[in-house]
């Protein structure tokens, strides 16, 4: 009787002290939060032309088939999720509410505008995550929101972010899994500024006002996200990494590390063990910056593998929420979801199959030669056979099998938009 590829792989990993079954069990219970904005190029459904006013976020490319309605976006998501093994989550921005064609100001949004999303997620057994949308709005047109000089503008964004936290808590309550509501703002200066202190003082006060209402951590978690620089904020960003690290430590909030929000030579993986010494939890936005925060589709590459290795080596998975954050409009958007999510999961599986105990034994003994040799040899072990077994158990297509489904969906659905 011939042995299956998975059984052969399992035996090989066992010789290194790795339990492939335990790795698959952990992988199956670790969700990835897919980002809704990949499906429509970060436009949302708040109002026509929202992307064009008030500092919108640009997605490059004009591949046909962009979702234009909530129904189209949900159809695209259903197609993508069916091609990703496991049960996952969806990350929503506030501009993706079901507003029924009505103009609803952002500081007036409520859970009623996301009931259909909650129902959709409940039917599919998914969790939801959430974000205030502090861009693509007239009151963000000068590049400032929660750190704005004008107290009236600041108050508007405080009310918006506060409303989003309450919506997130309602989502978590309804779905039985805590929602992570992540605050990111674009505030900053294009050119040199004479006052770096003032905006950061205002941002600190605004965030304190946003987080003043205590919410049940069993249904809701808060996160804050930094950025190195942005288009229109090349010289100064109010919410820098140092600012939010200090804020997260002193207020005991989750810190969001976005892989595209740091210098290209920085290792985001290296930050994980430092940050989690002092904050209660971590939110990862897994992305791929080319030159900088260009938000390309996630690959099975060294930076992503290093990220997952740190989570596994440090025993941090239970304290980390893993989400995706990219928006590529140059290729099929559904395929972009599938490729990026499957790659994130493959990187996690590779980390779970690492013989960490043996590597640490070499390191403790000062045998750095053996450590390096084993790390390199791991790269050619039969990870693919274990991945295919995971896909089979989760009733999801394996590699080289899923793409025809997307191509058929493009011909039958996307091409008619």
Q: What are the salient characteristics of this protein?
A:
single chain, about 425 residues, alpha/beta, TIM Barrel, 2 domains, eight-stranded parallel β-sheet, two-stranded antiparallel ribbon, 10 strands, globular
Itemize the secondary structure elements and their pairings:
Layout: H1 5-14, H2 20-28, E1 32-35, H3 70-81, E2 89-93, H4 115-124, E3 127-131, H5 151-175, E4 179-183, E5 188-189, H6 197-210, E6 220-225, E7 236-237, H7 241-251, E8 254-258, H8 268-275, E9 282-286, H9 302-313, E10 320-324, H10 333-352, H11 356-364, H12 368-377, H13 383-393, H14 403-412
Helix pairs in contact: 1-13, 2-10, 3-10, 5-6, 8-9, 9-10, 11-12
What does this structure look like?
It is a single chain. This protein has 14 helices and 10 strands. With 417 residues, the chain is α/β, with parallel strands linked by helices. It has 2 domains: 1-30 and 353-417, no CATH class; 31-348, Alpha-Beta Barrel (TIM Barrel). An 8-stranded parallel beta sheet has the order 3-2-1-10-9-8-6-4. Helix 1 (5-14) crosses helix 13 and helix 9 (302-313) packs across helix 10 (333-352). The longest helix has 25 residues, at 151-175. It is globular, with a radius of gyration of 22 Å. The model has no long low-confidence stretch (mean pLDDT 96).
């Amino acid at each position: 009787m011939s042995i299956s590829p998975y059984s052969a792989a399992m035996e090989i990993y066992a010789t290194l002290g790795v339990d492939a079954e335990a790795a698959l069990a952990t992988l199956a219970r670790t969700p990835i939060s897919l980002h809704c904005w990949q499906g429509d190029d970060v436009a949302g459904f708040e109002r026509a032309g929202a992307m064009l006013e008030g500092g919108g976020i640009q997605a490059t490319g004009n591949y046909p088939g962009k979702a234009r309605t909530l129904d189209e976006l949900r159809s695209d998501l259903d197609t993508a999720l069916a091609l990703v093994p496991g049960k996952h989550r969806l990350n929503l921005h506030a501009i993706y509410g079901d507003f029924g064609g009505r103009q609803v100001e952002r500081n007036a949004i409520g859970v009623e505008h996301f009931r259909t999303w909650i129902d959709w997620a409940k039917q599919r057994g998914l969790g939801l995550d959430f974000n205030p949308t502090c861009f693509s709005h007239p009151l963000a047109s000068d590049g400032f929101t929660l750190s704005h000089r004008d107290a009236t503008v600041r108050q508007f964004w405080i009310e918006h972010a506060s409303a989003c936290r309450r919506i997130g808590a309602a989502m978590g309550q309804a779905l039985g899994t805590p929602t992570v509501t992540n605050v990111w703002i674009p505030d900053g200066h294009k050119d040199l500024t004479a006052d770096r202190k003032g905006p950061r003082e205002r941002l600190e006060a605004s965030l304190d006002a946003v987080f003043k209402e205590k919410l049940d951590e069993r249904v809701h978690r808060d996160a804050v996200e930094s950025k190195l620089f942005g288009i229109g904020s090349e010289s100064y960003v109010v919410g820098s990494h140092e600012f939010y690290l200090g804020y997260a430590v002193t207020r005991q909030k989750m810190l969001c590390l976005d892989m595209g929000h740091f210098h290209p030579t920085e290792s985001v993986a290296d930050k994980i063990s430092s940050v989690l010494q002092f904050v209660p939890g971590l939110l990862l936005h897994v992305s791929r910056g080319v030159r900088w925060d260009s938000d390309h589709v996630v690959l099975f590459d060294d930076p992503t593998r290093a990220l997952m290795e740190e989570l596994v080596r440090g025993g941090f998975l239970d304290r980390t929420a893993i989400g995706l954050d990219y928006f590529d409009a140059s290729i099929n958007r559904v395929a972009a979801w599938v490729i990026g999510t499957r790659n994130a999961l493959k990187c996690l599986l590779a980390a779970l199959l690492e013989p960490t105990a043996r590597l640490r034994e070499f390191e403790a003994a000062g045998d750095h030669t053996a450590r390096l040799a084993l790390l390199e040899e791991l790269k050619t072990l039969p990870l693919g056979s274990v991945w295919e077994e995971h896909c089979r158990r989760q009733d999801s297509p394996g590699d080289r099998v899923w793409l025809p489904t997307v191509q058929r969906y493009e011909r039958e659905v996307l091409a008619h938009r």
